[in-house]
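Reviewers of the previous submission asked for a worked example of the structure-prediction workflow described in the proposal, so we include one complete record here. The input consisted solely of the amino acid sequence. No template or homolog information was supplied to the procedure at any stage.
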Amino acid sequence: MDLKDLQNAVREDAALRRRQRLQPAGGQGDKLFPPTYPGDNGPTHVFERRCIEGEERACVLIDSVQSQANRLEEALLAAAEAGRISLPRLVVDFPGAGLNSVGPISVLEAPHRIFDAILRDSELNGKSFRDSDLGKALRQATPADATAILQAAPTALLFGAWNSTGEGGGLGAKFARAIVSEVIGVDVPVEEVADRRTGEINLRSASRRTGSRIDPLGIPRSIEIYKDGSNWAFDKGELGKNAKQVRPSEINHGNIAPSVEELGVTCAYAMQTQVLTFAGLRRLRFGEDEQKNLAARTWLAALGIVAMIEGNRQGMALRSRCDLVCENGLAPLEIVAFDGSTREIEIEAERAIQLHEDAFRAAQDAGFDLKPEPVMLAPQDKLVELVRLSQQKALADEGGEADGE
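From that input alone, the workflow returned the following structure tokens.
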């Protein structure tokens, strides 16, 4: 595939996709541990029945669309930082503010991408980023004219973004995902469990996860210990009136009692489905010039292809005990036409990089102000102090769990 081929696909076709069958790195039938989510009776995996090849089959979510997007963003960031691709991006320089332990955070790492609070609470050239010319242009961008985002953070258009804290009480512009990737396990042994209150049938894993640990110090639970914050003592008087009696396990001493949980799965195979929508890219506009629109959409498509290929090159070590490999070699990429017909394309990693660079230069030639080096922001003093206070509380064992979304 060359630049002209990609332009034609972006102009006329529906999507580019890859459907990849996978197996555990330990071999078929080895146990996998998908992500867990809160359930009525403790942590659980996400089970569902899907229609696959005309049959209803029990499936489990192994890696969500959101998680896969983060992994693809990491792959693009690694390629950009290695100098392999030209990628405009915003970076908040925390080391420059004395927070070396945080490191620089780019728009590809921020949870809400271009509209994240990390960028909002930073400065550009000594001025609040939100009130800077670039910040204002980004807030005013819409799918009808997404030029500002394309030039500053094109990955936000590729993976989706929502100005949920913008003007209008969360009615800010939304940019739909142009690339979607997901990994599921197919034909998972499950148990059907009836809810005692509603009678609703829920699925749970037929596999089990066990846990236990013998304390090498042999500390019994009968020993009286008092705790106040991160400090503990045998005498309550040493700690003050707020100290409470606790078990040794509450100061992380003692045995870990044996436990059995309905977690972990086996499956016939895992399936990764990746779709880069050309039809979705055609809904983004960058002015009235159709050739300019085509150049922008083609560059975004090339960036998506690099993300898919670089993501696979990094492998699929998704989490502890959840490593996946291809079942019978890497599946080909397919162009999907509107009528449902498909044609395979062959594109190796280095050719994908070259295709991206060609598309990037073509977008520059079309009139877009694209700079391959990052735009550096400085965190505001209040953001620096917020991070420092959080670190201090974490060191004092007072941080607790981070808020989820």
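The chain is about 25% helix and 30% strand. We consider this example representative of the routine output the project will generate in years two and three.
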